[in-house]
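Sequence design from tokenized structure. All designs in this work follow the same two-part layout: the structure record, then the generated sequence. An example of the structure record is given first.
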């Protein structure tokens, strides 16, 4: 404003000066209190302009002197605010660096310099206590922050993390739920509530949380789709298990139907999720809908072959000969012949049909695959069926040192595939939703799984010429006593125990 006024005055003065220099000065008369002043118009204008300027300067100087105390107070407040900001910045940096004592000192300094940022001072006090290792003080500081609406979300998050660190799941869940109610767009609050629902086995609530997260764009559509498929499968498996163990009332029948609907929806949503297809097929088979069950498994096999799929497909029928079963499995493998699991199935179906030569030929397609315990056992079975017992024993020895396969080792030999507890389903749902891959709870816990290594005698009792010579009462050794001891030991040795029968996949499967 002052600059604009000065510019106008300069322009007016120049205009008057130009008029005066052109010889048209004009005239101006002023009579006041006995004074009679006569001058040119240009001089009068210039005098008026400079008089106004002098008056303005005098007035501004007066105002500046009058407001000096207030200006000094503002400068002092600004200086204290700047120092408080610097103290807060240093305090947060110290807390982030783990220097609790320095963070507390800076927090006290910031608190003494002013109350312009009380929320930040409270937060710094809490974080300084955390950095100093004073959990009780930190918890008290955060609890005090719950009384301020703008600080409740931060306080709930910190108290939730503290409760999780102490193993108090109920308290952590309470704070997570409160935080999610305050801010439904906070990913950490949503995830904490979801984890609590998964831990409790509340699949319906977890499905609603996932739907809400998709609406608010907390998760991508792909993650939401995978999570929905896994949660529907978990709900179906849990409901089916509960209904199977009950007395068979009308409510249980509705639960079984609801489980079947959930499993079919999951299998349709994500055909590559093997547990959904297996659970759906098992429920369909129990309902007498074998053709539909086979269709669900075939669709899943086309999307992503898994050993549980062909085992479930194998057990759909129990009234067929081995050759018929082998032909059906070969047709099943042809739906998706290139993956590794399909090539393994071709070996399995040849073994079922008793075609040792065909099994050996099918094994040629697995030569480039890394040797696992399952593959070593499979090759041992092929060699045993061909009568090559030494080669079979060699593969059995190699199987002992070979790594296990998670997909195979995670199958329960005593019951249905994917017969998991709620905690296992929660882990599977979380991992599959985030990565699109299956978790393997039984494999990770090193629990007993299906054995695919044949049981052959470890000694060469049936093929050693030396033992055979002794059995034929050959001439004794040079040391007759030692020869008699060997004979006595062989005569007293108990016969080898027969191999244990292998349990077929699925505890209730028959006719294998």
């Amino acid at each position: 404003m002052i600059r604009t006024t000065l510019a106008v005055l300069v322009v007016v003065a120049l205009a008057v000066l130009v008029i005066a220099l052109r010889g048209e000065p004009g005239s101006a008369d002023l009579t006041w209190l006995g004074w009679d002043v006569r001058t040119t118009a240009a001089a009068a204008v210039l005098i008026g302009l400079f008089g106004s300027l002098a008056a303005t300067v005098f007035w501004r100087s007066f105002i500046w002197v009058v407001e000096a105390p207030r200006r000094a107070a503002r400068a002092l407040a600004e200086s204290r605010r700047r120092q408080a900001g610097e103290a807060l910045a240093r305090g947060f940096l110290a807390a982030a660096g783990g220097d609790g004592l320095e963070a507390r000192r800076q927090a006290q300094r910031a608190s003494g310099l002013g109350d312009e940022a009380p929320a930040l001072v409270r937060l710094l006090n809490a974080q300084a206590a955390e950095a100093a290792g004073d959990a009780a003080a930190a918890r008290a500081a955060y609890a005090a922050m719950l009384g301020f609406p703008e600080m409740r979300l931060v306080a709930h998050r910190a108290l939730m993390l503290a409760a999780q660190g102490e193993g108090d799941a109920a308290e952590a869940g309470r704070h997570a739920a409160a935080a999610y109610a305050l801010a439904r767009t906070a990913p950490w609050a949503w995830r904490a509530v979801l984890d609590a629902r998964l831990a409790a086995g509340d699949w319906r609530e977890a499905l609603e949380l996932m739907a809400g997260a998709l609406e608010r764009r907390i998760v991508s559509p792909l993650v939401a789709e995978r999570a929905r498929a896994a949660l529907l499968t978990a709900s179906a498996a849990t409901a089916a298990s509960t209904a199977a163990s009950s007395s068979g009332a009308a409510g249980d029948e509705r639960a079984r139907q609801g489980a079947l609907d959930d499993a079919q929806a999951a299998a349709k949503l994500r055909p590559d999720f093997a547990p959904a297809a297996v659970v759906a097929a098992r429920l369909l088979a129990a309902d007498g809908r074998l053709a539909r069950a086979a269709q669900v498994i075939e669709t899943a096999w086309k999307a992503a072959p898994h050993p549980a799929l062909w085992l479930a497909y194998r057990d759909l029928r129990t009234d067929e000969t081995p050759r018929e079963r082998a032909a059906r499995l070969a047709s099943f493998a042809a739906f998706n012949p290139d993956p590794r699991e399909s090539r393994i199935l071709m070996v399995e179906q040849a073994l079922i049909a008793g075609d040792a030569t065909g099994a050996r030929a099918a094994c040629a397609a697995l030569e480039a695959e890394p040797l696992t315990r399952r593959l070593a056992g499979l090759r041992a079975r092929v060699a045993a069926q061909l009568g090559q017992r030494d080669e079979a024993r060699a593969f059995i020895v190699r199987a002992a040192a070979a790594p296990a396969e998670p997909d195979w080792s995670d199958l329960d030999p005593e019951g249905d595939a994917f017969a998991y507890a709620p905690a296992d389903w929660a882990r599977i749902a979380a991992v599959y939703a985030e990565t699109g891959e299956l978790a393997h709870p039984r494999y990770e816990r090193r629990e007993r799984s299906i054995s695919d290594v044949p049981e052959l005698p470890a000694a060469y009792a049936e093929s050693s010429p030396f033992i055979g010579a002794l059995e034929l009462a050959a001439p004794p050794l040079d040391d007759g006593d030692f020869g008699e001891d060997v004979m006595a030991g062989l005569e007293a040795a108990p016969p080898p125990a027969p191999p244990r029968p292998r349990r077929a996949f699925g505890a209730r499967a028959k006719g294998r």
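The longest strand covers residues 28-32. We note this feature because it recurs in several other targets discussed in the main text.
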